Amino acid sequence: MNILFTSLWTLLLLGRLVRSQQLQRRDILNYLLNSSAYDARIAPDYEKDVATEVDVQLFVTSIDSINAISMDYSMNVFLRQTWRDSRLNFSHISNISVLELDQRRIDDVWVPDTYFQNEKSASFHTITVPNELLHIYNDGFVIYSIRSDLYLCMTSV
Hints:
By secondary structure, the protein is an alpha+beta fold.
């Protein structure tokens, strides 16, 4: 009952904002991420029984500590991933083209569970805040980037 009331209230408020053309980025994010239709634990095309196509880019900033004896090395990278999530399409409610999420809201969006097969360990940069960004475009296109230190072995484990 409470969820139904909250959803109806959100729709009424959104309808008023759209009619008055005062829809702000915060309102769009609240509409997209706080609705009962969006669950960050579920992949975008899960209900269609189709895998989500994710494009991955790796920008290597440094390769360090190459050890020929233990067959491992470390590297600092920016991991960038892009995909489309139709649940995050907001082109029908606003003319804003892109939303940049704050660090506190990134966990509210589904992100791929990408891993490195030859990883021994990894860490994410968090000084002074986590080094990650997430942009949502009005057609549901998502860009996610994170900076990481990887400790990898030269052979598969």
